[in-house]
Amino acid sequence: MIKNTNEKILNARISKKLYEKVSQKAKRNRTTVSNLIRNIIEDTLEIHNDFHDAVDKKITKYLSNAQKEDIVGFQEMFLAKDAQCVECEKIIKSPSVAYFAFFENNDSRVIICESCKTRNTKEKINTNETSSDS
Description:
The protein is of the alpha+beta class. 50% of the residues lie in helices and 17% in strands. Strands 1-4-5 form a 3-stranded antiparallel β-sheet. Helix 1 crosses helix 2.
């Protein structure tokens, strides 16, 4: 028998009740307990990665307060195709006006809608007025 050195053995302690469930499931699927466990782990890790990627993508869509503070300006544009505002997630239909937000400390740009641009601009003006009054 040729031993595959790329494979590792994993031992885990489980209850008798869980072992019986796994064993019955393996029999129903006409596979070994080892293969069933391996497939469950692989599938779970794949689902876990997909879930976390989706959550990370969702979180990064929203601008943090620090990112909002870092906006130096906006560039108006007419959309050639529909786009989504990163702030409110509203779909901006083509050929509507949308805005690129440019940041002070990085080269990234995000697309935002008219109302979010106005709100961000007002927040910046209010913050500047409050800090200059002190």
